[in-house]
Write a structure and sequence with these properties.
Largest sheet of chain B: 6 strands, mixed
Number of helices of chain B: 5
Oligomer: heterotrimer
CATH topology of chain B: Ribosomal Protein S5, domain 2
Order of helices and strands of chain C: EEEEEEEEEEEHEEEEHHEEHHH
Number of helices of chain C: 6
Radius of gyration of chain C: 21 Å
CATH superfamily of chain B: GHMP Kinase, N-terminal domain
Shape of chain B: elongated
Shape of chain C: flat
Strand order of the largest sheet of chain C: 9-10-11-13-12
Strand content of chain B: 35-45%
Distance between the termini of chain B: 35 Å
Largest interface: A-C, 36 and 38 residues
CATH architecture of the largest domain in chain C: 2-Layer Sandwich
Structural class of chain C: alpha+beta
CATH class of the largest domain in chain C: Alpha Beta
CATH class of chain B: Alpha Beta
Helix content of chain B: 25-40%
């Protein structure tokens, strides 16, 4: 049996519906909300600010510190116990690495830029949604940033490559499945996040990544719109 | 807040005017939305001015405690997310988060608003555990009231999930909700009254909270009866002040209750 | 021939293509890659001739020499004060720049500035490692007694001050308030309670709508509505003795001084790094 039609009738290169908003958390220096399908992420940026403990300070640049967290009621099954588990720590780390290539924090030696990503509601693709929200929030915080980063999961089910897998698709059992979250730097089309779970031949992987790069435009557009909408109305 | 700024604030309060123009007993705009998290069995978003919190209810099947074999369990937890305020830190819950959670919990628990006996499915074997988690999105003052209102709104919004029996075990099917609500018999709301010198205020902003000497959380029910109290802050207060604070707490709760 | 691909005064986002061709000159908030010029910050596009730059709309305050700011004393040291600046970096106010009085060795420094005090202070030097020296030498620099402190985004400060101080003067006159605006986004406000609420609302209105055109008129009609008085827009602020914002606002009112402005100035002899005990002890 081959996977010819998606459960939710999307085209194979089509993302779930996307909504995004910048400046949603007043206390933060920059913030965003990003929704793709049923997955929702908030991101808040604080800083550059004082960094403690002091031994973490870097005298030649500011550092980026990301923190990914699922709210206890956000999962589709049991309550998620509060506190950082191994999964959240790893995702925080890869999120940092996905965003770093576009950021220039050399203006802020010894300081830290904190990014807090919180998921009130998760389906599939929560780390990608977190990265998308974080990219908007970092821009909203006015930080020096070469480009926006747009993250999306790509993958394969059987012979079919596809973008933005849903929860049902990730759990598909009749054919081999691969889930490949990637992050795309929009101008250079370079990849700053790449993970893969499942089985996939190399040719198919490359094809899937290319499909993801094209589809990331849908996310990039929503990110730009979120930032520009915050200042819609007449400019000075 | 330094002494000069505090004196300035007190001069203003003498005329009954707060920094944002409100009177001492005036609340900021309150909005309550429910059903904001699809994965939770019940949820609510409460906004009080710039303060925003989300509360979500998760239901689980547990074995009842041996001393209460015919009762389910209920708990409130608060996560002071560092996302919501630059002064909140990552890591294990601070004493502030624990106090806030316990005060919110007691207001509901002690009113017996949730009939824990009706949460029992099979005596000594299966009972519902109800956990309300409260997450601030933007903490701009008065998380105490926001948490209480959000917890109650989320409980009121909760629908029990379906269960499947596999052999002798009862398993929650989170994918499907029944149309059965929680056995919620009362609407307890906790309102915190804040005292700065001789002035009593409701719904403080973050800046006002820094000037507060003493606070009293007054949890009251629909019939105007008290169900829990908590004194906080460093200063003491007089019996007369306690009376005033309770009156103000009950009347404010009655106003908020209309919005639920 | 080069081509500018965005409109002047439009909002640009990081990575947005601003211009094509080698004859466009990328300035603040932009970068060149190959033939193209891109934005490296969120902000308003500013084109003047062939120079293209971004005027930031948001961002935390980064101390620059020459800025007049409002700080809060967070530590009293042996020979000066450490001051929090609404920034990633705190500043050091040394005894000799903090007061012109003679201070005996071992004197109690809290009688000049105590913990928690707000002070209007100027930034006298910033090193590459962001050690910030402060000074109280200059007109209007002093401890701020009474009143309240408001916070706005530092990038909105030029709008709060207005052209030649017109906005802040208008609010001051309409509400009989004393207002001092620090370039780091802290604003000191002191008036009768009722008037103070109006002034505060006006300032918040500016901060929230800083990107909107015709803002002065909007604030004017707001002030007229709530005070019931006729409000004048004055371009030149009155000299009120303690008010040094006329000068500041002049520097700031075009909102273009983000960045390297201060590096062009002749370097005065501010190199005192060696005699600053407890420099980084916070």
């Amino acid at each position: 049996m081959s996977y010819n039609e998606r459960f939710d009738k999307r085209k194979f290169d089509q993302t779930r519906p996307i909504e995004a908003k910048a400046g949603v958390i007043k206390n933060a220096d920059g913030s965003a909300w990003f929704k793709i399908g049923k997955t929702e992420a908030f991101a808040a940026v604080y800083g550059p600010r004082d960094l403690y403990p002091k031994f973490m300070q870097n005298p030649s640049t500011g550092i980026l510190r990301c923190n990914y967290n699922m709210m206890p009621f956000s999962g589709s099954g049991d309550r998620v116990r509060p506190g950082q588990n191994r999964r959240a720590k790893e995702i925080s780390m890869v999120t940092e690495k996905a965003l770093l290539p576009v950021l220039d924090l050399t203006e802020f030696p010894n300081a830290v830029v904190d990014v807090f990503i919180e998921l009130p509601q998760t389906d599939a693709g929560s780390r990608c949604a977190g990265i998308c929200a974080a990219a908007i929030a970092l821009a909203d915080a006015g930080l020096p940033m070469k480009d926006l980063v747009s993250a999306i999961a790509v993958g394969r089910i059987g012979d079919q490559v596809l973008v933005d897998l849903s929860y049902e698709e990730e759990a598909f059992e009749d054919d081999p499945v691969a889930d490949i979250p990637i992050a795309v730097l929009n101008n250079s089309k370079q990849i700053s996040l790449l993970q893969m779970d499942g089985e996939v031949p190399k040719e198919m992987l490359i094809k899937a990544i290319k499909l993801g790069i094209d589809a990331s435009k849908q996310i990039h557009d929503a990110q730009i719109k979120a930032l520009k909408d915050k200042y819609s109305g007449d400019s000075q | 807040m330094n002494e000069d700024n505090r004196t300035h604030l007190l001069n203003s309060l003498k005329q009954g005017i707060r920094a944002d123009g409100r009177s001492p007993e005036e609340y900021r705009d309150v909005t309550i939305e429910t059903d904001v998290v699809a994965n939770a069995e019940g949820s609510a978003r409460v906004r009080i001015g710039d303060t925003e919190v989300i509360a979500g209810v998760k239901m689980a099947i547990e074995t009842p405690y041996p001393d209460t074999p015919d009762q389910g369990n209920f708990m409130v937890n608060v996560e002071l997310l560092p996302m919501s305020n630059p002064e909140f830190e990552s890591g294990p819950p601070s004493i502030d988060a624990i106090e806030l959670a316990r005060v919110t919990d007691r207001g509901i628990r002690e009113s017996k608003a949730i009939d824990t006996k009706r949460l029992c499915i099979e005596e000594g074997k299966h009972a519902w555990g109800v956990i309300v988690d409260i997450c601030p999105i933007n903490a701009a003052g008065n998380l105490f009231d926001a948490a209480s209102i959000a917890a109650l709104a989320a409980l009121k919004n909760t629908k029990l999930p379906e269960t499947d029996k596999i052999d002798d075990r009862l398993i929650v099917n989170y994918k499907k909700k029944t149309d059965e609500s929680l056995p919620l018999t009362k609407l307890p709301i906790a309102i915190t009254i804040n005292k700065i010198e001789g002035f009593l205020l409701v719904d403080p902003t973050s800046a006002e909270e820094k000037a507060v000497d003493t606070r009293l959380t007054v949890a009251s029910m629909d019939n105007g009866e008290l169900c829990a109290l908590q004194k906080g802050g460093n200063g003491p207060f007089t019996v007369e002040e306690i009376e005033q604070m309770i009156d103000l707490g009950i009347s404010t709760a009655a106003e908020i209750r209309k919005k639920l | 021939m080069g081509e500018i691909t965005v409109e002047d005064k439009a909002v640009a986002v990081p990575g947005e293509l601003l211009a094509k061709g080698m004859d466009c000159i990328p300035s603040y908030g932009t970068y060149r890659e190959g033939e193209n010029v891109y934005s490296s910050r969120l902000g308003l596009v500013n084109v003047s001739g062939k120079v293209i730059k971004i005027i930031p709309l948001t961002g935390v305050y980064n101390p620059k020499r020459g800025d007049t700011i409002i700080g809060r004393v967070i530590d009293v040291l042996v020979s000066g004060w450490r001051v929090e600046l609404n920034s990633a970096y705190s500043g050091m106010l040394s005894l000799k720049d903090g007061t012109s009085e003679f201070v005996a060795r071992g004197a109690d420094l809290t009688k000049y500035y105590n913990l928690g005090d707000y002070i209007m202070v100027s930034v006298s030097n910033v090193t590459s490692q962001k050690l910030v020296d402060l000074s109280m030498r200059g007109p209007g620099l002093r401890k701020l007694s009474g009143g309240q402190i408001l916070k706005v985004n530092p990038n909105k400060v030029p709008r709060v001050i207005g052209k030649h101080g017109s906005m802040v003067s208008m609010i001051k006159n309409a509400t009989n308030s004393k207002i001092l605006v620090g370039q780091n986004g802290l604003i000191w406000l002191n008036a009768e309670p009722k008037d103070e609420v109006i002034a505060r609302n006006a300032i918040n209105m500016i901060a929230e709508n800083s990107h909107i055109s015709g803002l002065t008129e909007k604030v004017k009609s707001f002030l007229e509505e709530v005070t019931g008085k006729k409000v004048e827009i004055v371009e030149r602020p009155e000299n009120e003795g303690n008010d040094d914002n006329g000068e500041n606002s002049h520097d700031n009112s075009h909102g273009n001084n983000h960045g390297e402005r201060n590096y062009d100035r002749p370097r005065r002899n501010f190199d005192r790094n060696s005699d600053r005990p407890g420099n980084r002890n916070r």
